[in-house]
Write a structure and sequence with these properties.
This protein is of the alpha+beta class. The protein has 3 helices and 6 strands. A hairpin with a 6-residue loop joins strand 2 and strand 3.
Length: 141
């Protein structure tokens, strides 16, 4: 049975508003979810953020990355405008690249509780070295 879209979307606070204020810091509370409209069908959702940025906690210089999030929803899906605001809030957040990607994974897994989840953060080269963080949930070998 399909989910009533109106019931699910009535809980969303950002969608359909011309809100333009990025949260000052990342918070799991920024992420909004709605009911999976097809919970009986296994499918993947891919979200691509080619212009992600955060700050190096040592130098204060910006770190940029291409972040790709893929998940197989169970009962909930993340609302993309809330995800956009959540990811944008990292631009002033001093944190190591490894910590950033792990925090994003922890927050999305906590709010969506997906069947499967994968995130890849490919950071631009700094000092001649590129860094990529790749997380799978549940863990795979």
């Amino acid at each position: 049975m399909a989910t009533d879209v109106h019931d699910s979307s009535s809980k969303l606070t950002l969608l359909g508003r011309s809100e333009s204020t990025i949260p000052p810091a990342p918070s799991r509370d920024t992420l909004e979810v709605f009911e999976n409209p097809n919970p009986k069908r296994p499918y993947w959702i891919s979200l691509d953020c080619p212009e992600f940025s955060s700050l190096c906690p040592v130098t204060g210089q910006p770190d940029t990355a291409h972040v790709v999030i893929r998940y197989q929803p169970d009962q909930l899906c993340v609302e993309t405008k809330s995800l956009k605001y959540y990811l944008a809030s990292y631009r002033n957040e001093p944190s190591f690249n490894e910590s950033v990607v792990n925090r994003i994974a922890d927050d999305l897994i906590a709010v969506c509780q997906p069947q499967r989840f994968h995130i890849k953060g490919a950071f631009s080269a700094r000092g001649g070295i590129s860094l990529t963080v790749d997380i799978h949930h549940p863990e795979t070998t």
